[in-house]
Design brief:
It comes from Bradyrhizobium retamae. The protein is 44% helix and 21% strand. By secondary structure, it is α+β, with helices and mostly antiparallel strands. It folds into two domains: 331 residues, Beta-Lactamase (2-Layer Sandwich), CATH 3.30.450.350; 178 residues, Heat Shock Protein 90 (2-Layer Sandwich), CATH 3.30.565. The strands form five sheets. Strands 1, 3, 5, 6, 7 and 8 form a six-stranded antiparallel beta sheet that branches. A five-stranded antiparallel beta sheet has the order 11-10-9-13-12.
Length: 552
Amino acid sequence: MVRLGFIIGFIALIGVLLSGLAAYRVHEQELAIDGIALSRAIDVHASLVQDRLTERELLARVASGLFRSPSVVKANMLQPLRSAIYAFKTDFVIASWIARLKPGDLAAAQAELKSAGFTNPTIRDFDDKPLDLRTINKPIDVLMDLEPRSPDTLGFPGRAYDRHSVIGPMLAQAAVTGRPLASDPIPLLRQNGPIGLVLASPILLEGSSEPAGFVTFSYELAPLMLTDDDRSLFSVVLKDPDDANDEYVANDQGFVTLRAVRQGDPLPSVVRTVTFGGRDWSLAYYAKNNAAQRAQQTAIVVAAIGLALTGIVCGLFGYVAYNNLRLSREIEVRIGFERRLTAVIDELNHRVKNILAVIQSIVTRTLRHGSDMDVARELLIGRIHAMSNVVTLLSESQWQGVKLKGLFESRAIPHADRIVINGPDIAVSARAAQSLSLLFFELASHSDEGLSLVGKHPHIVANWEVSGEEPDTIFHFRWEEFNTSAATRREDSDFGLILLDRVAPEALGGTAKRYFTDVSYVYELIAPMATVVDMNERDRTGEISAPVRPAR
């Protein structure tokens, strides 16, 4: 009996040790799985939010780029943009044209608003209080046109926003910087309306540093934060940029409220920073489930089961625990695969929408009214061919960038055999590759085909170099066509001028200039390498394309 009791006691001791070990392993495993799942979900969400904000900022840049010598007193300035902005994105609340009117233009502006059919064409303050136009002695910012025009919005034109506590300072700062700028969160449409942001892009006339007005887009805050998923592992809030103790919180129905953070409230699990409208915004993520408590409860259950087992049951429990671990790893791989698939689909949607927006702009600008159809058809086919070539190259590299020299292939660039390229074969980002491909096509397609080689020197030389030290390296590109002049070179199209002077430099965050020398035509582009290479984009696509492996 004593020996049997010793054996039973020994088996019981083994059971206790195995139960404690199993409980500890299960506790740590649950914490690790919850932490990994939460971290991946937050990273994917923050990346999608940043992509969504970037798309909306790009819309503002494109809209401002399409303005050509606006007349500030016109009330239908958005008419040429309506089809473009709806095709690009349709989730804005209001798109508007705010003109900077001089005192002498106010009477004409009132007449224009009245003829456009707006319900209250009187020039007045932002709160609908009348203004004495005789006392105004400086330019004011007046809403002259908006989209969509509905019974809720027809009464807005005529309001002056330069004295608005939020929009006024935002417009003033946008005028100084000359770039799109986002406002603080404010109610939209009405005093108790949905909380959102206003993005203003100044319209600068050639030869003037003072803006003629602003194109603005208003967006609700909840869709920008992607807060409508009630099955996510976390809840996301936006930190108030004016008060660190306040947070903007959205419920499952997308209604946003301002919540005060009190002492003793739980701290967010992670804080991520996104950029929009020239400002940094902080997104705070709160985990919905208490991972530590759940892991502790699971460990207690496992320990209780283990303590009740005999030696044979302990062995069976070890086998079951092993299978449970293997099953957990398989579930982790499956979860990772499904999240990766979702990220790939979202990335594909983003790429397709971006490409369609570029193609729409190409078609619209190429087939403009009055264009020579033969020339327009040739340019349109060439531009789309250039886009197709760069998409093929990006697909082959899984959208992690392409070699710069690959953009000069003969199948995409006209007269490629007459172009000598010289420079390091750097790998540029997907966004930079699309802009540079169109840029190279526009430069090559407008070169003079009738000119041949001059001595041993080729007709066209494309040279680029990288200068400076990390992280402030600079990309300098120079395109030079020899034996040509303003009289012999094919004149650049409107689309080409916009691409050369504005779209391509802004897409790369740099500057460009073009000019004629005594013997050549020169185009130069200077941009930071951080934008040309864009390691954040490459890392994101690399993580999406990387194989999913189980944790070891």
